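A reminder from the course coordinator: this example appears on the midterm review sheet, so study it carefully.

Given structure:
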């Protein structure tokens, strides 16, 4: 399955990129095609116009590239930190540039924090936004507390529980990808 792994932090000392790198490798290990979407590598302006608001072939190249990827995606994996109990502004900005490209696809939420709660408060806000954008979030979350201790800078897990928990999480995501893919092929409500 083709899975954009959308990461949302642009902070200088960002630590969540470790979790994003780990998730990319975990998806590859299960035979999938993940694509890391890092807002530092694909910078977007603050939202003024959504991709769909541009005339055909007039959108900035980065929006066109992401739109073409998103429309082919089988599902999305969103990797979000927790900033003051909410999601990072760069993540919200990136997500808000698109809409129809997300419709009828599942989203798996990986969350993290520097503390012990693993970003779950931000994940609850993210569920609401993703639902409004037409995505179905899978029931489970994949939270990583103390993210800077949980992974090396390259994304290697440093705690024994991480691999098993992530494997179960991805298996659940795969189920939703398969189910929604079959339903999209059969037709959508509108």
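Designed residues:
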């Amino acid at each position: 399955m083709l899975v954009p792994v959308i990461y949302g932090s642009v902070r200088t000392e960002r630590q969540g990129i470790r979790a994003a790198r780990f998730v990319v490798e975990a998806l590859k290990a299960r035979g999938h095609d993940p694509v890391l979407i890092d807002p530092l590598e694909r910078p977007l302006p603050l939202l003024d116009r959504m991709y769909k608001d541009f005339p055909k072939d007039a959108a900035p190249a980065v929006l066109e590239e992401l739109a073409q990827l998103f429309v082919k995606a089988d599902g999305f994996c969103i990797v979000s930190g927790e900033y003051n109990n909410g999601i990072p502004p760069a993540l919200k900005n990136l997500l808000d540039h698109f809409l129809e490209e997300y419709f009828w696809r599942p989203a798996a939420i990986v969350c993290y924090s520097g503390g012990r709660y693993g970003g779950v408060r931000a994940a609850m806000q993210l569920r609401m936004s993703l639902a409004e954008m037409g995505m179905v979030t899978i029931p489970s979350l994949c939270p990583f507390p103390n993210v800077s201790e949980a992974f090396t800078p390259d994304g290697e897990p440093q705690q024994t529980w991480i691999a098993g928990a992530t494997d179960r999480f991805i298996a659940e995501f795969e189920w939703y990808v398969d189910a929604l893919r079959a339903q999209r092929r059969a037709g959508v409500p509108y």
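The radius of gyration is 16 Å. The chain has one domain: 2-186.
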